[in-house]
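Backbone-to-sequence.
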């Protein structure tokens, strides 16, 4: 039973990590957090509102609505090119019609998001190894597969857990700066990618427990056959 559950858990975790890795700006519905700007001014009865979603390799800016004297103008949505390490640059601030917030996002923290594809690759490796655990009648091969699954699974679980804490730290840091440095014109919301990677971490750790239990169960069976 454990030999079947472990690959299933690893497969689900791999899919979650893959989707998070392919988040904004590639998959626009999956993101770590979004920033919503709603700036208004009594001067000229003007206002601007828009939002930007941030993912592992960049961001996507929604269409910005600008109102002047009751006349509505809308700018088209656009996304950055996928790259590692980004920040809230002046161009993004200009698009949202806000200024002075260039230090909201740390480039070092966004560069650390590279752990997501690394965790995804390690989970895929553990998934491949776990498939050999399902072979019956080959106790030696199954034991070796369990050992490799356990080793790669532990490494994948550790990297995924670290990536989750980096995500939480990134979003919490930006949220803190938004609350302290803005006057309510800018708000931040958590994205679905953070909870997806949490689910992946839980799934991988559960798979590691399953691989360990399968390994211990195989050892007991071998001892029983010996005596």
């Amino acid at each position: 039973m454990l030999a079947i559950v472990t690959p299933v858990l690893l497969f689900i975790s791999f899919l979650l990590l893959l989707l998070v890795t392919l988040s904004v700006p590639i998959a626009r519905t999956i993101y770590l957090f979004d920033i919503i700007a709603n700036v208004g001014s009594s001067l000229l009865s003007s206002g601007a509102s828009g939002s930007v979603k941030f993912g592992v390799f960049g961001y996507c800016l929604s269409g910005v609505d600008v109102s002047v004297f009751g006349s509505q103008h809308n700018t088209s949505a656009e996304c950055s090119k996928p790259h590692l390490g980004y920040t809230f640059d002046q161009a993004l601030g200009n698009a949202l019609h806000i200024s002075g917030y260039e230090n909201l996002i740390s480039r070092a923290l966004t560069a650390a998001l590279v752990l997501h594809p690394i965790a995804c690759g390690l989970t895929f490796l553990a998934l491949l190894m776990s498939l050999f655990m399902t072979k019956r009648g080959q106790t030696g091969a199954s034991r070796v597969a369990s050992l490799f699954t356990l080793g790669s699974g532990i490494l994948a679980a550790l990297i995924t857990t670290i990536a989750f804490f980096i995500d939480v730290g990134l979003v919490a840091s930006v949220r803190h700066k938004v609350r302290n440095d803005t006057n309510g014109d800018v708000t931040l919301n958590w994205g679905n990618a953070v909870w997806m990677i949490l689910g992946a971490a839980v799934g991988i750790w559960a798979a590691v427990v399953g691989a360990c239990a399968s390994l211990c169960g195989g050892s007991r069976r071998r001892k029983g056959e010996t005596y």
